[in-house]
Amino acid sequence: MPVIAPRILGALLDGVVSAHANYHSVTLEKLPRMADFARWVVAAEAGLGWQRGTFIAAYEAHRQSVERDAMDRDPVARLIPTIPDLGSSSEWSGSPTALLRLLVALSDEAQWRAPEWPKAPNALSAHLRRVVPVLRANGYEVTTDRTSTERKVTIRRAASSSSSSPSSAGPTAKIQPDTTSTGDERDGDDDV
C-alpha cells in the first residue's frame, strides 16, 4: 500500500485540478439530485481519466437500479404490476377496500400476514401515498379521489416505463470551452 499511496493521491489531485478548471464550464441539461456534486464530478472526469459522460451514465444506472429495487422490496408496490386490469386496459379503478381485497388475492399468506402489510383500506391508501414516487419511477401513476359518498383509487400504467422513456432519460452534461482563459492563467475564482 505505501508504494501506491502517492500514485493514488496524485490521481485524486488530478481530478481536483480538472474539476476546478472545468467546473464553471459544465452544464447539466437535466439536474439530478445532488446537482452540485454531479457537476463537480463531471468537471473532474477528464482529470480522472474517464471518458466524457461516464459519471452521469453510472449515476443514472444506479438511480434506476435503486428505483427497481425499492419497488421489489415494497410488499404492496411489487404487486401493482400483477393487477390483471393493468395488463389489458392500462388502468384499474375502484375503492381502497376493493384494491386491498385484490392485493390480498394476488399475494400469498406470508405477504399479507407480514407486519408491514396494510391491514385496512385507510392504511392501504396511506401506504400508496408513501410509495407514489417509487411507482411513478417504475411507470405507474396512482391517484385518489374522494367524494362525500365514496373513495376511489385509480392506478394507470404509463405508455412506457420511466426507465426507458426518452423524456425521463437521465441527466446529460456538457463542458463548454472556456473562451475567457488562455490556458494556465487563473481567473481569481478559487472557490473549490
Lateral strand order in the biggest sheet: 2-4-3
By CATH reckoning, the class of the largest domain would read Mainly Alpha
Beta-strand percentage range: 5-15%
Largest sheet, strands/sense/barrel: 3 strands, antiparallel
Structural class: alpha+beta
Low-confidence stretches: 161-168, 179-192
Order of helices and strands: HEHHHEHHHEEE
Whole-number total of structural domains: 2
Task: Note the quaternary state here.
Answer: single chain
CATH fold-level topology of the largest domain: Arc Repressor Mutant, subunit A
Helix percentage: 40-55%
Structure summary, number of beta strands: 5
| Discrete helix count | 7
Could you say what the CATH architecture of the largest domain is? Answer: Orthogonal Bundle
In one word, what is the shape? elongated
Structure description:
With 192 residues, the chain is an alpha+beta fold. It has two domains: 5-68 and 169-175, no CATH class; 71-166, Orthogonal Bundle (Arc Repressor Mutant, subunit A). The chain contains seven helices and five strands; from the N terminus they run αβαααβαααβββ. The chain has helices at residues 5-22, 35-48, 54-73, 84-88, 96-106, 109-112, 121-137; strands at residues 26-28, 91-94, 140-146, 151-157, 173-175. Strands 2-4-3 form a three-stranded antiparallel beta sheet. The protein is elongated and about 65 Å long. It starts with a helix and ends in a 17-residue tail after the last strand. Residues 161-168 and 179-192 have low confidence and may be disordered.
